[in-house]
Amino acid sequence: MPFHVRKIVTFKELMLVEGGRALAKPIELIAVAAIIRNPWSGRGFVEDLRPEQLDGCAQLGRTMAEHMVREVGDVSRVESYGKAAAVGMDGEVEHASAVIHNLRFGNQYRNAMKAESYLSFTNKRGGPNTSIQIPMKHLHETSARSHFVTFEFSVPDAPHQDEILVAIGAATGGRAHPRIGDRHLDNEELRSESAAVAA
User: Fold this and answer.
1) Cβ pair 97, 122 in contact under 8 A
2) In a 3-state reduction of DSSP, which class is residue 181?
3) What is residue 147's DSSP assignment?
4) How many domains does the chain have?
5) Would you list the DSSP string of 36-85?
6) CA gap 109, 65 in Å, rounded
7) Is 68:108 a contact under the CB 8 Å cutoff?
8) pLDDT single digits (tens) 126-159
9) What is the CATH classification number for the domain harbouring 189?
10) CB atoms near residue 15 (< 10 Å)
């Protein structure tokens, strides 16, 4: 049976200035969060979480991806994405993980964004208004540190003790003024340093 969704909320942020310098291109960060009843809450230790995953994750992922597409408008604007979940205090972190860590959920969003890289994530336990952080990375270039960015928000009345807050995030860019290089640069520098020491 599909997950019972209490509500869906969206958050948007438009970044214009960082470090006292205006961005060449403003960056929009968007989050879509669904507040669902925790199907494992109140049942004691549930050994097999798979039946509920099979029943609800694809539909929830599809619904949330559709909301994100509407918020974004043109999917080609999106450069980074990620996901997060927070379970209420009566649940286990494993319950939050069960919802977002499976391809039935993740592929709905990945396909909607025409992405290749895996979805960065956080999962935690917390009460209403707990801080939610969605870590994001480039849709295609997993080593692009320029696009390692986090969108943070909270929902004043969620998650309740018997709920899970499930969120997906998107950004139309990376960090405002990236200038730390990527893993490829690090590897080249480390190789050069090793060669210099060996010499």
Assistant:
1) no
2) coil
3) G
4) 1
5) EE-TTTTS-S-S--HHHHHHHHHHHHHHHHHHHHHHHSSGGG--EEEEEE
6) 5
7) no
8) 999 999 999 999 999 888 898 999 999 999 999 9
9) 3.30.1330.110
10) 17
- pTM given for the model: 0.91
* Model confidence pLDDT, tens digit, residues 83-127: 999 999 999 999 999 999 999 999 999 999 999 999 999 999 999
One-character DSSP codes across 133-146: EEEEEESS-TT-GG
Residue 106's domain comprises 5-198
Nearest to 65 by CA among 81, 42, 47, 46: 81
Calpha distance 182→75 (Å, rounded): 25
Tell me which residue has tokens 């919802």: 99
Residues 4 and 1: their CA atoms lie apart, in Å, by 9
Q: How many CB atoms lie within 10 A of CB 189?
A: 11
